[in-house]
Every structure is written in structure tokens, then in C-alpha cells.
Design brief:
Elements: H1 3-9, E1 14-18, E2 24-26, H2 27-43, E3 51-55, H3 62-70, E4 75-78, H4 85-95, E5 99-103, H5 107-116, E6 121-125, H6 137-142, E7 156-162, E8 168-172, H7 186-193, E9 202-205, H8 212-224, E10 227-230, H9 236-246, E11 250-253, H10 255-262, H11 266-271, E12 279-282, H12 289-299, E13 303-308, E14 315-318, H13 320-325, E15 332-335, E16 337-341, E17 354-359, H14 370-375, E18 383-391, E19 397-401, E20 407-409, E21 412-414, H15 416-423, E22 429-439, E23 443-452, H16 460-471, E24 482-485, H17 499-509
Parallel strand pairs: 1-10, 3-4, 3-5, 4-7, 5-6, 9-10, 9-11, 11-12, 12-13, 23-24
Antiparallel strand pairs: 1-2, 7-8, 13-14, 14-15, 16-17, 17-18, 18-19, 20-21, 22-23
């Protein structure tokens, strides 16, 4: 299954519709555009196994590049367009990307990247690039042949997760053994067999395409011949309008989307017909029980939840019907076997909390980080994403903690260590801890708890100074929404920070402690 097949049988059917302006890209257009991208990659010497990066907003040409890379055997790294130039440069260097495809919306970062990553060529939609890819992307690619390259071969994505130091780590999978670009994969089988996707799917994607789930689900819809509706950014009422307008029947969400839609006035929610929905998939963050109850009451038993990671080592699923009988669960395993283990790596009885592992799931490695790869497996060879939870007697999994105090804010994973490492380099900071605190809208907000070098200097002025300092390096999504001050942080004599004490305090008080 592949878009090229649908281009032959239903070439006029929309593969992509951009929600902002209604621009429609047919399967025939997507096929030609992705062929031109593949031809271009070969023309500049990119061959099977080489790496490119894609960093732009939800753009009409996003899938031209993704499918062009897929059909030319490349490894394609999707990078957040919210990163700063130094953050992007790290990923480009770590992944070995030789080309960055972006848009003129990122002109400032791209200009800086030319100085700090001069060896990476740039292909820019709506602007001039650099190096071998000089010029506007549309102009350059339109000059390429629209026919398939002679040596088509299936490529794969390389997505980034966080490393032990707070730096993101790439999960690099080998190219598929079956080089057929139309070969199926486990997600396609899950989409068909579990979530009900098919050629009639009209799929709404409200999230950034650089995330694993939106990218992979959209590509799965394309493999099956459905239509993808792309929002440039999430807006709760606009999402409801799109469901009604296009008769959306499949979709993928994070709990923050649900919260924001539920906060719309009742008359606004009632104004839009959502009865076309057959599967509303959600994941990425724990969904509060009352929120999910309210969504099922509103949309009906169409909510389908899963638990998985970019690493792909396991996959759980739960339907609305099963969830109503096992509230709070993320389901039973469909890929791999769940094992809940104690600190020694031994399995514990049902309803006993422990580390969540998957047995018999696909293996993975963290690129350039053998230590992190090794730590993901226990003595049995079972692998973990670092989450804590428990399983009931029927095999339903319940998550009770986040991996290594990772903060999930609005469905985005944020890792504290990078922010802490930056804060402690400020001349007025003696120590710092970054945690997630409750937020009614985002689920969690980033909070920095700072020990000033001079306690008398704590206050509004220092908050502003620290905020400005962090903005020079960090992307906006990582910036603490709250900065509190303490005379001393809870550290053991060995230097270990008791972050759990801070986190429990903030979650116990609900809104945290304002000092």
C-alpha cells in the first residue's frame, strides 16, 4: 500500500487538505511532487541510507518531502519548528543530516544555521536556500522529472526523544528489510484491524507534523487511500467546524485538545455536528478520568486510547467500552507482552506498582547513546520507556508516574535537565530544579524552583532576568511558566536532588507555591 497506487486508481481524490485555506493536494499531485523530491535527492548525491531533516510548520508541501524521502530510501528526521537554531544544529549534527528542508517562516533560524551548521544544505519553501540546494524549493523541485527514480527503495523516519543529559536522542531504525516502498507495516495493520481506518477515512490532524503520532498516522491514512485534513494549529472551535464540514470520521488527539474543547460554551459545542466520528484516537499524555468521561458523553463511545512510544517497543489499546469498565487504564498489549517489574527487574504480582516493560517487542537503539540504550533493557532483555504503573488481573495497564519526571505540557514532552543545566550557569543562581506542576489547560506547566546565590535578590526583577536569559537559548515551549525561589533545595548529602519531594508538594497544593 502506497500513495503511488492511489494516484493510479483515484488520482483526483484529495490526499491532503489544508484547513487554513482549503488547498487540496490530490493523490496524483502528491505522487508527482514526491517523485520530483526523490529525483532531486538523487541529483545532489543522496542515496539509500543517507539522512535529511525536515523542519517547518504544517506546510502544504510537507508530505511531498516525506514521501519523496520514503520512496528514495532516505532516513528522514522531522524537527520541531519551535526550536532555536542551536537546538536544531545539534539534531542536524547528531543525525548526520546532509540537507535541511524548511520554509521562509523560519528565516531567522535558517540564517543563524548557515553560520553554525554551514555543511548542511538548505532547501527553503518561499525563500532562498544555501549550498547545493540554493534557491526556492518549489522552483528547484518543479524543474525535476515527475517520474519515479530508477532505484526506489523504502526509507524510514528517525525521530528524537530525550537523552540522559537532557539533549534529545534519535531513535534510528534500520531501513526496512523489505525494500518495497508499498510494503505494509505494523501501524497500517493496527489502523485497519483495531482503529477502523480504510480508503474512506477522512482524518483530522490537529497537531504539528514533526511529532511521531501525527506524522505516522497521516502517512498511514495515505497508504490506505484516505484523506488527511491538516490544521496549521489547534483551535477548539475550528476543530469542531472541520469535523462537521468535511464529515471527519477518524482523528488523533491529546488530552489538552479535549480540555479546550470541553471549555467551549455549551451552545458552541452543540452548534457543531460531530456524529460522523467513528474513531477519536488519543495518546501522548494521561487523560484525566473526568475529561474522558465528558468526551464519551459528548462524542459517544468512539474514543480509542493507546500507550506507546517513538521507540516502538510495545503498544497497548483500550476502547471506550473497555475503558468505562476499567477507568484510568491505557489498555492491554497488542504489541509485546507487558511486564511490571521491581527495582531488581523481577516481575511483580497484579496490582503492584513497578516499572513498565515490554517483552517480545521490537528492539530499538538510541542513536549515539549506547548507555541510554542499555538502561532501557533489564536483565531479561525486556525494554522500558521509563514509565511506572501496574496491571490488573485482566491485563489492563494503569500508568501512575511519568518517565524520569518528564513534563508533558499540552501533549509536548519537556525534559527538565536541559533547563536546569542552563539555569545553573546564570551568575545569580546557586541551584535549580525544574518540575511539572498542575495546569488546568495544559495538564502540566513547567515550573523552575531556583535557589539564588543571594537570597535577598529573589523577586520580580530576578524572575525577569532569568526569563530573558533562558529565552536566548530555549524554544518557547520549554520556558518555565512559573519561577519560584527557595533558600535551599532538598538535596541529599551525596548531592542527589529529591525532586519527588518538590513535585509532590506542587501537585498536593494544586497550583504550586508562589514565593
Amino acid at each position: 500500500m502506497h500513495p503511488k497506487m492511489h494516484a493510479e486508481t483515484q488520482g483526483d481524490k484529495p490526499a491532503v487538505i489544508m484547513a487554513t485555506n482549503g488547498e487540496s493536494i490530490s493523490y496524483a499531485q502528491l505522487d508527482r511532487r514526491s517523485n520530483r523530491a526523490a529525483q532531486y535527492f538523487r541529483s545532489i548525491g543522496l542515496n539509500a541510507g543517507d539522512t535529511i531533516a525536515i523542519c517547518m510548520e504544517n506546510h502544504a508541501h510537507y508530505f511531498d518531502i516525506v514521501w519523496g524521502a520514503q520512496r528514495s530510501g532516505l532516513v528522514y528526521v522531522t524537527v520541531s519548528n519551535r526550536l532555536t537554531a542551536p537546538e536544531m544544529a545539534y539534531i542536524l549534527e547528531d543525525s548526520g543530516a546532509r540537507l535541511l528542508v524548511s520554509s521562509s517562516d523560519m528565516a531567522a533560524q535558517l540564517s543563524e544555521l548557515q553560520d553554525i551548521a554551514p555543511d548542511v544544505s538548505q532547501l527553503v519553501y518561499g525563500g532562498e536556500g544555501s549550498g547545493d540546494a540554493e534557491g526556492d524549493a518549489e522552483q528547484v523541485l518543479s524543474a525535476m522529472p515527475g517520474d519515479p527514480i530508477a532505484d526506489e527503495r523504502a526509507g524510514t523516519d528517525m525521530l528524537y526523544s530525550s537523552g540522559t543529559t537532557g539533549r534529545p536522542k534519535g531513535i534510528r531504525l534500520p531501513l526496512p528489510e523489505d525494500g518495497d516502498i508499498a510494503a505494509t507495516n505494523p501501524l497500517v495493520m493496527l489502523a485497519q484491524g483495531v482503529f477502523g481506518f480504510n480508503a474512506d477515512s477522512i482524518y483530522l490532524s490537529p497537531a504539528p507534523l514533526y511529532h511521531a503520532a501525527p506524522l505516522r498516522w497521516c502517512m498511514t491514512v495515505h497508504r490506505l487511500g484516505g484523506t488527511v485534513i491538516i490544521m496549521d494549529k489547534f483551535d477548539p472551535e475550528r476543530a469542531l467546524q472541520l469535523i462537521e464540514k468535511y464529515q471527519v470520521n477518524t482523528s488523533q488527539w491529546v488530552p489538552t485538545h479535549f480540555v479546550r474543547m470541553l471549555k467551549l460554551p455549551e451552545e458552541v459545542r452543540a452548534r457543531h455536528d460531530v456524529s460522523s466520528l467513528r474513531s477519536a484516537i488519543h495518546a501522548a499524555a494521561p487523560c484525566p478520568v473526568p475529561v474522558k468521561e465528558a468526551m464519551i458523553d459528548w462524542w459517544g463511545p468512539v474514543l480509542m486510547e493507546y500507550y506507546a512510544g517513538t521507540e516502538g517497543n510495545g503498544f497497548t489499546f483500550i476502547s471506550s467500552q473497555d475503558w468505562l469498565e476499567h477507568k484510568g487504564s491505557v489498555g492491554r498489549a497488542l504489541l509485546g507482552t507487558i511486564r511490571i517489574c521491581d527495582d531488581n527487574g523481577d516481575e511483580v504480582p497484579p496490582r503492584t506498582e513497578g516499572a513498565v516493560y515490554f517483552e517480545n517487542g521490537p528492539q530499538f537503539t538510541y542513536h549515539n547513546d549506547p548507555e541510554k540504550t542499555a538502561k532501557a533493557a533489564n536483565k531479561h532483555g525486556w525494554t522500558s520507556l521509563g514509565d511506572v504503573g501496574w496491571q490488573d488481573e485482566e491485563g489492563f495497564l494503569y500508568l501512575t508516574d511519568r518517565k524520569s519526571f518528564m513534563i508533558i505540557s499540552g501533549g509536548v514532552n519537556i525534559y527538565p535537565q536541559e533547563i536546569e543545566n542552563l539555569l545553573v550557569t546564570h551568575p545569580k543562581v546557586a541551584d535549580a530544579a525544574v518540575i511539572g506542576a498542575p495546569d488546568a489547560d495544559l495538564g502540566e506547566k513547567v515550573v523552575a524552583v531556583v535557589q539564588p546565590l543571594d537570597p535577598e535578590g529573589a523577586g520580580k526583577e530576578l524572575r525577569g532576568e532569568l526569563d530573558a536569559y533562558m529565552r536566548e537559548t530555549l524554544s518557547g515551549v520549554k520556558l518555565p511558566k512559573q519561577i519560584d525561589f527557595r533558600d535551599e533545595l532538598p538535596r541529599h548529602a551525596t548531592g542527589k536532588l529529591y525532586k519527588r519531594l518538590l513535585r509532590d508538594e506542587y501537585w498536593g497544593e494544586g497550583e504550586g507555591r508562589i514565593v
